[in-house]
Specification:
12% strand; 10 strands; alpha/beta; Rossmann fold; globular
């Protein structure tokens, strides 16, 4: 010890060191709080994938349902309520797909994310709903009284879902609104370019092409307009060009979860393996499906990979059709980790099936 230092000086030094230590601790704790990420929970993994596109590294995003399970029938476990209880943002379809959500919200007791709160996102808002029933009797099966809730199967709807997420992020985390907006613009541009191709987006502009597509007016407009002496339809690229082999073709589908995909890509589900939504097919109905597919030469069956593969294979075997079984959601199969990979999986699988059938037909002729 330095005996030359007076006692009061030693006390001052000790107090100063303690103050510095306390300041360092406060700074460390404050830094930890500043770095705490927003918590986003979604019902479906595809919504989680879209939310990640908007939040980037500013949030932890988690989905309740798995990508390879039927989203109609998710068991509302206590652990799900615990996750929603900690959420700053909760993204749901907002129709009557996830009938298990109210039970989770009741148990979560999180006023930040209840319906009507800034942290509650209804993904369907602003989407033109298809298949809105005139008769809502449950005698017709698992009828969705507000319309078909499988909204994510149209890439244009993915943009609207992203905009809905963005609107609520602005409310719950205004400090990072500029980052979210930048990410959302990037996501929209990438979706439009992947759907229509770079050339067409550059010609028309993203805003114009989005408005046309949102109202299902794109094909009529493109057929009537030209650019540099060529119809606009000749500039179509992206997923729509890749989907040309199945455009205006007819397929069989397992369930009515492809309505928005069908409308966007112009491929008709002419018959369903389910007699009514949510009702398993009887042997008699399966035979009726087989007969119609044979009579009308319907060559492909499209099904989500959480439905009965044995029933799909049975119909395919007895009709000579090709079975296209794909994940309906992100994380529903290996290598399907974001929304772009999901749409790639749908379009490429259907296109490959029809190209193979067309080649086989040409070979026979």
């Amino acid at each position: 010890m330095d005996n030359s230092v007076k006692p009061y000086e030693r006390r001052v030094r000790a107090i100063s060191c303690a103050a510095v230590s306390l300041a360092l601790i406060v700074a460390h704790v404050g830094s930890g709080l500043a770095q705490q990420k927003l918590k986003v929970v979604t019902t479906l993994p595809t919504y989680a994938a879209i939310a990640r596109e908007i939040t980037g590294d500013l949030a932890e995003v988690d989905a309740i349902a798995r990508g390879d399970e039927d989203p109609h029938f998710v068991n509302p476990r206590p652990s799900f309520a615990a996750r929603v209880g900690e959420a700053d943002l909760f993204v749901v379809t907002g129709l009557d797909l996830e009938l298990w959500v109210p039970a989770i919200l009741d148990r979560a007791r999180n006023r930040r994310v209840i319906e009507g709160a800034p942290g509650h996102v209804a993904a369907y808002s602003g989407i033109k709903l298809l298949e809105v029933p005139e008769n809502v009797s449950r005698a017709g099966g698992d009828v969705h009284v507000f319309g078909n809730p499988h909204i994510h199967t149209d890439p244009i709807n993915a943009i609207i879902i992203a905009r809905n997420v963005l609107a609520h992020l602005r409310q719950v985390d205004p400090a990072n609104a500029a980052r979210y907006e930048q990410n959302a613009r990037s996501f929209e541009d990438r979706v439009l370019r992947r759907l229509f191709g770079d050339r067409l987006v550059d010609i028309l502009g993203g805003d114009v092409i989005f408005r046309l597509a949102r109202n299902y007016q794109f094909w009529d407009f493109a057929s009537d307009q030209s650019f540099e002496g060529r119809p606009l339809t000749e500039y179509v690229g992206g997923w729509l060009a890749q989907g040309a082999p199945f455009r205006d073709r007819r397929i069989a589908c397992y369930h009515k979860n492809w309505a928005y995909f069908s409308a966007r890509f112009r491929v008709e589900c002419a018959i369903f393996i389910e007699p009514q939504p949510g009702i398993p097919p009887s042997p008699g109905h399966l035979q009726a499906v087989i007969d119609l597919m044979r009579d009308e030469s319907i060559p492909v069956i499209l099904a989500a990979n959480y439905y009965s593969r044995s029933q799909v294979d049975r119909v395919a075997e007895r009709t000579g059709a090709r079975a296209v079984v794909v994940p309906e959601h992100v994380a529903g199969a290996e290598g399907v980790d974001d929304y772009f990979q999901l749409v790639d999986a749908w379009v490429s699988a259907l296109a490959d099936a029809f190209l193979a059938l067309d080649r086989r037909r040409e070979h026979r002729e």
